Structure formats: C-alpha cells, structure tokens
Amino acid sequence: MIKIVNLNKIFYKNTNKEFYSLKDINLEIKKGSCTVLKGVSGSGKSTLLSIISTMQKPTSGEVYYKDELISKFPDIHSSNFRAKNIGFIFQFFNLFNEFNVRDNVSIPLIPLGFSQKEIDIKVESALKLANIYHKKDELIFNLSGGEKQRCAIARALVNEGELILCDEPTASLDYDNSQNFINIIKNLKDLGKTIIIASHDPIFFNQNFVDLEIELKNGTIHE
Ligand SMILES: Nc1ncnc2c1ncn2[C@@H]1O[C@H](COP(=O)(O)OP(=O)(O)OP(=O)(O)O)[C@@H](O)[C@H]1O
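A: This is the predicted complex of the input protein with adenosine-5'-triphosphate.
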C-alpha cells in the first residue's frame, strides 16, 4: 500500500550545516498491517511520518500510496489527500481546549463538504469506536489525559481514512492508558486500518499485532 524508494531528507543542503534527517530509506508497508518505527530521539521517526503523511516533502526519492506518487503532490493536492486518507494521532493530542469533544472530532470533516447530518452520524460513530461518546459535550480542558487521547483517536478515525499515523502516542499516558491505547490499535487493525506508530516506548516492541518493526539510527534503517 505504501512504497518508499531511495528517500532522503536533507536540511541546510549545500551549506556547512548540511544534515541528513533521513538517508536512503527503502520500505514497503502492506495494507492492513501495523508498523512500529523505533529509534532514539533525533533518529528521524517524526520526519519519516511527516513525509508519509505528505506534510513534508523529501529532498529526493519517492513515496507511493496505492501506486500513486504522493511525495510530489502540490500542496493543495496534499491537503486533500490527507483529509481523505489519513488520521493522525499526536503526542500532545493537538486538541482545541476551549471546544467540546464533539466539535474537536468534527473538525477534519469540515473541508470534505459533508452536510451537518452526515457530520453528526460520522462523529457519533467515531466517538463510539474510540470509547469517548459519553464525554461528547465536555470541554477538552476538563478531560483526563487518557480521555484526551481517546478524543484524539476519534478525530483520527472520523474521516474513515485507511491510514492511521501515530507519533509517540503513549508519551503523555500512564501505563493503564497506554494499554488501553494498544487495545484500540488492535481493534483498528481488526477493522482493516493500516497503522504506523513512531515510538521509543518499549510497550510496542515484540507485540504480536505488530507486523513490522523498523529501527532508525541517524536517519537510516538499521536491520
Ligand atoms: N525543520 C528542520 N530543520 C532542521 N533540522 C530538522 C528539522 N526537522 C527535523 N530536524 C532534525 O532531523 C533529525 C530527526 O528529527 P525527528 O524529529 O524526525 O526525530 P525523532 O526520531 O522523531 O525524534 P523524537 O523522538 O525526539 O521526536 C533531528 O536531528 C532534528 O533536529
């Protein structure tokens, strides 16, 4: 489903500060699989996720999604692609504290042109899937860390995209909430989602629902 070919991301190219954040990455990710990108801080995990999501462009190399070359999309095309195909779960949730759960979860649907009735149906279904429906009218400000995470998961699911990208998803969670997160990821996999998790949390290592573990070291894949 995702094919990455000879990918490089260079910052400060052709200066004395030139730096390879990613170097010669080749990777294939199968539809419906769960991949864990591990590696120490600064190894390139977030940069790789961000290039797969089309938020950043590589310096060279290609990323294909279902045989379509997404890494060379113009920006307007990239944001449409993300809105339709990708759910993103961030370490610090990136929710709007002054809005309630339901409004936060509905945000990704706004650019997709759905009617209010369609938005209500999709939001309700995502809230139930992420087990946060009972807090739908609560302000984010009043939620616990685990509840914020479940709200962020609902927001990542609401567009029914096939690809779920998670950047250090358990970094702000305690052990029990991290275990809950793992259970939700297993459910998403059962629903056929393709999942990529960038994390150095050992909770993701050697898990039977993980199909591929990739270690990044200084921007390269370490076999
Ligand atoms: N916009 C940028 N400009 C310059 N250097 C950058 C930029 N973005 C990332 N880098 C560098 O690229 C390297 C990889 O960063 P990245 O955020 O991908 O690492 P990471 O493995 O996700 O780390 P962490 O676990 O701390 O989030 C780091 O050395 C970082 O400083």
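The helical segments are 45-52, 75-85, 101-106, 116-129, 145-157, 175-190. The chain has one domain: 30-59+74-222.
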